Amino acid sequence: METIIKGIYENGKVTLIGTPPVHSRTEVTVTFPEKVASPLKKRQAGALRGRIHMSDDFNEPLDDLKEYM
Q1: In contact, 30 and 20? CB cutoff 8 Å
Q2: Which structural domain, as residue segments, surrounds residue 19?
Q3: Which end of the chain is more exposed for a tag (fewer CB within 10 A), N or C?
Q4: Are residues 15 and 7 in contact, defined by beta-carbon separation less than 8 angstroms?
Q5: Is residue 24 part of a domain?
Q6: CA end-to-end span of the chain, whole Å?
Q7: In this structure, is residue 19 part of a structural domain?
Q8: Where is the DUF2281 domain (predicted)?
Q9: How far apart are CA 17 and CA 7, in angstroms?
Q10: What is the pLDDT along the chain (69 residues), one digit of tens a residue?
Q11: Whole-number Å distance between alpha carbons of 55 and 53
Q12: The total number of structural domains that make up the chain
């Protein structure tokens, strides 16, 4: 059975945030998540202007749902 417990690695030591469910000496495996820093692009307002069109009857009831109304 595997149990995941978060911890903080600092100055060569791992401090666990939770309490492990074991009471005796146990082998553990520590993995470090790979952080991929992707730079966020600043979005430009109005970038899709002219590319999206909504029909004039967008808010009208659908014919398929007439029997439910």
Answers
A1: no
A2: 1-31
A3: N
A4: yes
A5: yes
A6: 54
A7: yes
A8: 37-68
A9: 5
A10: 788 899 999 999 999 998 888 889 989 888 888 887 788 888 889 888 889 888 898 888 888 877 776
A11: 6
A12: 1
